[in-house]
């Protein structure tokens, strides 16, 4: 056994996933290296790069309605991205080991069809499917669906919890003998019965991912998820979140390793620390153009601020808490508090509107040389702040290339990351148990 193998046997291993960016200002659209969000080649490039780096999975976000600002499609959003599961079925044919995670909404879908689609993906990929469960609170999104309307925030996770439990009942209705058993579920949100149309898949159950930092989200993850996708900028905040969520598992009869905590993070690499910081500053400015700075301000203030100079001071007027200026995103309920913090920051540092938006909305997590970034990632995991990371590059589709070429080898040298896949399913990559069949 080599020294590296001996070290990795005793060191906590880092889990890595690749997020295909686009539904926010993370992506630097103006960069000449930025490519299509609908051509299959873009998705294939990022997925193949992630698999070359021995990542656990490839992760696709998805929304059910295009967000609007002043009645126009949101300037920063993707228009025309393919549906996630359809795309991942195609990627299953050009990858061998990489997990494939799709976002599917539990508010505006139904358990039978969702369970069928993920079981199908799990079969076609040889056991690599994952479901990122999200919910929607707004009637704006609901207008796209026959049922319409929306769920109160307190009911979203109630439905989602029953949704996931019902899907698992369907997956369990086929036994190892290949014989489908009748299912019957009668609950608060769903009343269905029959026989499920897809045999038990290679993983038993596809991996379930949940994104959310609220108390309800943490509880849902502790009770039902295999992975939680979160965001915490500091080691201390990460440790607090990690301890809180892991501490909730015992009441559901689960062990700490049954749930992997993987914050979404960005990275900027340079040959020197100074070069990396310079690149990071340039990226922040590209992510927040003068027009987008005003747009971001209007999202908080809920008012038309187009007459304001982005290089000028913040508006003196207070936000409108009842504004419908922006639709299709979570409503900001603490706009007055956010505005007060932005004003205090702007006054303390002498920042313009654009500079304030850059400083308050930037999501750059790890900045430095490949050696320092590898060391910091390792410190987060060894220090109990995360089990791994979902990387969100700022370029599509080549933004992960440098990380795989420069940071992954250093993580492997540290004994903190695999040099080869040891299993074929996503559950094996993540170190998750295969669900026991409940016949």
Automatic annotation (TrEMBL):
A GO molecular-function annotation: monooxygenase activity
Keywords: Flavoprotein, FMN, Monooxygenase, Oxidoreductase
Family the entry assigns: Belongs to the NtaA/SnaA/DszA monooxygenase family.
Organism superkingdom: Bacteria
Protein name: NtaA/DmoA family FMN-dependent monooxygenase
Organism: Streptomyces mauvecolor
EC numbers on record: 1.14.-.-
Keyword hit for Transcription: no
NCBIfam families: FMN_nitrolo (TIGR03860)
Residue spans crossing the bilayer: none
InterPro entries: Diverse_substr_monoxygenases (IPR051260), Luciferase-like_dom (IPR011251), Luciferase-like_sf (IPR036661), NTA_MOA (IPR016215)
One Pfam entry name: Bac_luciferase
């Amino acid at each position: 056994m080599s020294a590296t193998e001996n070290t990795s046997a005793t060191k906590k291993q880092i889990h890595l996933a690749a997020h295909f960016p686009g539904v926010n200002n993370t992506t630097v659209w103006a960069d000449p290296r930025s490519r299509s969000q609908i051509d299959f080649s873009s998705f294939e490039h990022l997925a193949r790069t992630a698999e070359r780096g021995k990542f656990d999975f490839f992760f696709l976000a998805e929304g059910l309605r295009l967000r609007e600002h002043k009645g126009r499609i949101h300037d920063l959003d993707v228009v025309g991205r393919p549906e996630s599961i359809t795309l991942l079925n195609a990627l299953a044919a050009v990858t061998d080991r990489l997990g494939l995670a799709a976002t599917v909404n539990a508010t505006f879908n139904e358990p039978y069809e969702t369970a069928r689609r993920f079981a199908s993906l799990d079969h076609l990929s040889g056991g690599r499917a994952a479901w990122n469960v999200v919910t929607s609170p707004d009637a704006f999104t609901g207008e796209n669906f026959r049922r319409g309307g929306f769920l109160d925030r307190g009911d979203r996770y109630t439905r989602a919890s029953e949704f996931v439990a019902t899907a698992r009942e369907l997956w369990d209705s086929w036994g190892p003998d290949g014989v489908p058993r009748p299912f019957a579920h009668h609950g608060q949100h769903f009343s269905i019965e029959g026989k499920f149309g897809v045999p038990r898949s290679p993983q038993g159950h596809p991996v379930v991912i949940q994104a959310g930092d609220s108390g309800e989200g943490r509880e849902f993850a502790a009770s039902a998820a295999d992975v939680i996708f979160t965001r915490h900028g500091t080691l201390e905040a990460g440790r607090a979140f990690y301890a809180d969520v892991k501490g909730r598992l015992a009441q559901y009869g689960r062990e700490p390793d049954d749930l992997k905590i993987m914050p979404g993070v960005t990275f900027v690499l340079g040959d020197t620390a100074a070069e990396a910081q310079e690149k990071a500053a340039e990226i922040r400015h590209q992510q927040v153009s003068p027009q987008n700075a005003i747009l971001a301000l209007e999202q908080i203030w809920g008012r038309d601020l187009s007459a304001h100079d982005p290089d000028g001071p913040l508006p003196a007027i207070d936000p409108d808490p009842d504004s419908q200026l922006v639709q299709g995103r979570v409503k900001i309920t603490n706009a007055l508090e956010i505005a007060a913090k932005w004003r205090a920051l702007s006054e303390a540092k002498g920042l313009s509107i654009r500079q304030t938006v850059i400083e308050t909305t930037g999501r750059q997590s790890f900045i430095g040389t490949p050696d320092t970034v590898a060391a910091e990632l390792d410190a987060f995991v060894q220090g109990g702040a995360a089990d791994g990371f979902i990387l969100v590059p700022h370029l599509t589709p080549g933004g992960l290339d440098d990380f795989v070429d420069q940071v992954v080898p250093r993580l492997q040298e540290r004994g903190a990351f695999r040099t080869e896949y040891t299993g074929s399913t996503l559950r094996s990559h993540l170190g998750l148990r295969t669900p026991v069949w409940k016949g």
